[in-house]
Amino acid sequence: MDPQHTHQGATPGVRSREGVRIPIYSPEFAADPHWHYRRMRSEYGALVPVEMWPGVPATLVINYSTAVRILNDPYHFPADPRQWQKTVPSDIPIMPMVEYRPNAIRTSGHEHARYRQALSDALAGIDLHAVRAIVEQSVVPIINGFATEGRADILSQYALPMVFSVFCEILGCPAGIGQRVAAASAAMFDGVDTATVNLQMGEALLDLTALKRAYPGDDVTTRLVQHHAMLSDEEMVHQLVLLFAAGVEPPLNLIANTLLLMMTDGRFISAADAPPLSTSIAIDERLATDPPMANYCITYPPQPVLIDGEWLPTHEPVIISMAACNTDPALTGGAGIDNGWNLAFSSGDHACPAAARPYGRLLAQEVIDQLFDYLPEVTLAVPQQDLVWRPGPFHRALTELPVVFPAVRHPFPTP
Known about the structure:
Blueprint: E1 4-5, E2 22-23, H1 27-31, H2 33-43, E3 47-53, E4 56-61, H3 64-71, H4 82-85, H5 95-98, H6 109-123, H7 128-144, E5 151-153, H8 154-171, H9 175-190, H10 194-214, H11 220-225, H12 233-247, H13 249-264, H14 279-289, E6 295-299, E7 305-307, E8 310-312, E9 318-321, H15 322-326, H16 329-332, H17 356-374, E10 379-380, E11 402-404
Helix pairs in contact: 7-8, 7-17, 8-13, 8-17, 9-10, 10-12, 13-14, 13-17
């Protein structure tokens, strides 16, 4: 059924949006989101009334086919949040993740097409062979930082510095600016002090823009600066905000969540009767069943929309649950969907750019494989049920991933 719209109220036989809303930002939700998705299916169907933050209502889409229709209907479901922003406090901690920015994720129409083309062209210049080389150059100094200890938080001590150092190299971002961006980026995902986050991020990325205008290089930032779209300094800052938001936190969580799967699932552990499944298969499984951005791809209907028998209110956020949609029993029996068509990278005009997808998968695979090459006996240091998942409406992220391994007697030599 195609979405319909009207300015009249609900009609007989059409379900309303009233009732208790499920908080998707809570620690309880983060601890076991798939239990909540199952409960949502039984109680609400495809469209679930949720709170994305206390007092901030939204609709969560948990049906695959409904999500695909919404993501491919920018007329009824545009991504521009400006009208919605007028209805909520400007200082809610999640605002940096959802507010309007003149970039490819928070605009629609011609404005979006201009930013999207610039971003896609800049990302298309990424050399995947260079990515492998950067990982190999970065790994030994980082692993040597904890290898002689026999234990580590592999999330903060290994995955984060690996992801960030590689991404800064691809962007052409020097270490000093990168450290400033890293602090602001982490605060953005954790919902810390909206004004401070935006100020810190903006100042660092304006410095990066100025640097690349003065000293261009073979990197993503230079290609954006020199693009025929003629992006202003302000527009450059907001494209870079998007790049850092998408290029650090999601790959970081994909790596950590995949490592957790490979250390705890017997299919990925060597055994006498069968070889272990590959890192690539583990990544595919995590992207399907627990993507690092679990609930996102937010749109804001400009007028009431009737879809799947329910009226969605004007301007109220519609959030796609990639995690729930990918495991929609109507399509998969709960087993997850092959990555040729799952929603880990979204769908439609605002989907992850084609050039970024192989980079993200390759980065995760190389970082994981390098860890197992240097520390093949690494195992989880605590029972899996004792791990803590970071609360928040959008990500699927651990607070830490403690591991143990036989301590290395001497640091590894630099290749």
